[in-house]
Amino acid sequence: MVTLAVETLAVSRGGLPLLEGLSFGVAGGEALILRGPNGSGKTTLLRTLAGLQPADAGHIAPGPEALAYAAHADGLKPTLTVAENLSFWAAMFGARAIDAALDAFDLGPLRDRPAASLSAGQKRRVGLARLLVTGRPVWLLDEPTVSLDTAATAAFADVVRAHLARGGAALIATHIDLGLDAPVLDVARFRATAPADRFGAAWA
Amino acid sequence: MLALFARDLALAIRAGGGFGLALAFFLILVTLVPFGVGPLPELLSRIAPGILWVGALLASLLSLDRIFALDREDGSLDLLATAPIPLEAVALAKAAAHWVTTGLPLTLAAPVLGVLLNLPAPGHLWLLVSLALGTPALSMIGTFGAALTVGLKRGGLLLSLLVLPLYVPTLIFGAEAVARGVAGQDATTPLLLQGAITAGALAILPFAAAAALRINLR
Predict the structure, then answer these.
(1) Which pLDDT score is estimated for B200?
(2) pLDDT tens across B51-89, in order?
(3) How many structural domains compose chain A?
(4) Distance from A84 to chain B by nearest Cα, in Å?
(5) CA B187, CA B205: separation in Å to the nearest integer?
(6) Chain A partners of B73 at a C-beta cutoff of 8 Å?
(7) How much is the pLDDT for A204?
(8) Rounded to the nearest 5°, which phi and psi values hold at A203?
(9) Among A35, A43, A158, B18, fewest CB within 10 Å belongs to which?
(10) Among B2, B11, B79, whose Cβ lies nearest the Cβ of A79?
(11) Measuring CA to CA, which residue among A164, A132, A140, A128 is closest to residue A1?
């Protein structure tokens, strides 16, 4: 059972403090929904947890090696096919099989299509399927349902539920109701004082 | 690391990947020189080593800004940074892929293009050897420059300004080795120095490139 534990974390973006005194925990089998207005620091928080930028203060456990991060961009190469894109990430994370990930997001019929010919929602599904091939226990998801239709959103919620049932954990920044039985953390409560109040709205 | 290398090769070879671009540029540049300086065989064979080396250097500069910028745009770079592979290995794999798609074809084509510039006979071999030794350094230094400028919009020009001065030692020793080979002198010393630059670049610059990437990803 893996547990994501964050204690008195402070993060900033471009030198502006965004969040401070943030503490929360996500146990294996649980999800946590991040809410907050645009520019409140959700993306910055997720990037800090993923190890892409250093925290100003505080403690994060476990380290980035247990976390799989899904950003706004899907990281797909337009000239590679769906299967080639996924196989590449599988190889990078030391995995081999991509069939389960393809099936989970109903990508089987698209597997030999170049990513350039996919719609935005289909690309998003491939990007999310990448989470499954990483084999990492804690998922950090930044607006995962952008451009997904209702059916794909429901399928994604099922994938998250299956991941939680396997003992994984998920931290999801989203504004829609995924139908997950998960507590909500409003990051606006941890907004850093001073400069961020004046400029915070500029950071979307 | 091998997977990244193989992916970059596949991307370079497919449509829009830019494979062959450097080679075509090199070919055109070398063909243009006789038009510019006049078709004097003695003059051409005198300047051939320098022209061929400068041409190879400029050609390898062409595709440098693609090394990290495309991965940055589509989000792959963030994901690579969170993958189990260290960024040092990412930089090395990227440089290796860049060398195979530009440096290696240039090295193999240069002796043939030497004929166009009336490069005297023993010079072809020395050109091949010096390019084979020197072009890996060009790719590695270029990868470092690409890592430095990855966060900048249209950083290509700045990248050239940063990288070209760093190419100077490789150019000097490379062209000198060929010139000495043509003149029938011993070219061991410039080749050894060139090998030392390449070895040093391969040993140090992956770490420098990874540090630059970490700062630019913040």
Answers:
(1) 96
(2) 999 999 999 998 888 889 888 888 899 999 988 889 999
(3) 1
(4) 9
(5) 27
(6) 73
(7) 46
(8) -100, 100
(9) A158
(10) B11
(11) A164
Backbone angles phi, psi at A53, to 5 degrees: -145, 150
From A115, which residue of chain B is nearest by alpha-carbon distance? Answer: B74
Question: Helix B123-148 to helix B104-116 angle, to the nearest 10 degrees?
Answer: 140
A interface test, pick of B4, B68, B82, B90 with most A CB neighbours within 10 Å? B82
Query: Contact, A170 vs A31, CB < 8 A?
Result: yes
Yes or no, beta carbons of A130 and B11 under 8 Å apart: no
Q: Which helix (DSSP H) or strand (DSSP E) does residue A18 occupy?
A: strand A16-26
B15 vs A50, A73, A79: nearest CB = A79
Q: Provide CB contacts within 8 A for A169, sequence distance 6+.
A: A2, A3, A4, A26, A27, A28, A29, A30, A31, A32, A137, A138, A139
Q: What is the pLDDT of residues B32-44, one digit of tens each?
A: 999 999 888 889 9
Collapsed DSSP state (helix, strand, coil) of residue B78: helix
Q: Which of A69, A76, A88 has its CB closest to that of B82?
A: A69
Q: State the DSSP code for A171.
A: E
Q: Which domain holds residue A90?
A: 4-202
- Residues A75, B217: C-beta atoms closer than 8 Å: no
- Let me know if A136 is exposed, middle or buried by CB neighbors in 10 A (0-12, 13-18, 19+): buried
Classify strands A4-13 and A57-61 as parallel, antiparallel or unpaired: antiparallel
C-beta contacts of B113-116 below 8 A and 24+ residues apart: B113/B26, B113/B27, B113/B30, B113/B52, B113/B55, B114/B48, B114/B52, B116/B30, B116/B31, B116/B34
**Amino acid code (one letter) for B104:** L
Taking only the tens place, the pLDDT of each residue in A35-88 is: 888 888 888 999 999 888 888 888 888 877 888 898 888 889 888 999 999 999
ipTM of the complex: 0.85
Enter the DSSP assignment of A53.
S
For chain A, positions 66-95, list CB contacts with chain B under 8 A.
67-69, 71-80, 84, 88-89, 91-94
Chain A: closest CA distance from residue B183 (Å) = 48
- Which letter does DSSP use for residue A200 in this model? G
